[in-house]
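Quick one: structure for this chain?
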Amino acid sequence: QVRLVESGGGLVQAGGSLRLSCAASGSIFSISTMGWYRQAPGMQRELVATISPGGITYYADFVKGRFSISRDNAKSTVYLQMNSLKPEDTAVYYCRMTRLSEFWGQGTQVTVSS
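Got it. Here's what it folds into:
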């Protein structure tokens, strides 16, 4: 069974940075697409970024140039480096693994103060 555990969230001032991590258990990490999603209060969950098994990345327009997704297959971990954070980036950030099925982490709260 796959388990995803996010960490790295917290409170930061606007313009600051945070680095989220998502550690995966199981043996399919290296062949899975990994993604970060976020959900703000009262809003639908939305895609932030994804990275393929081969390292191809995709970013939502609202984070392009500010966020960077990366993966370390040896550590079964995916990262989200978030720079130039804005108050509107405040949300719970979730990690998702996709390989035939999908798996989600429990989420980590990111709060950006103005």
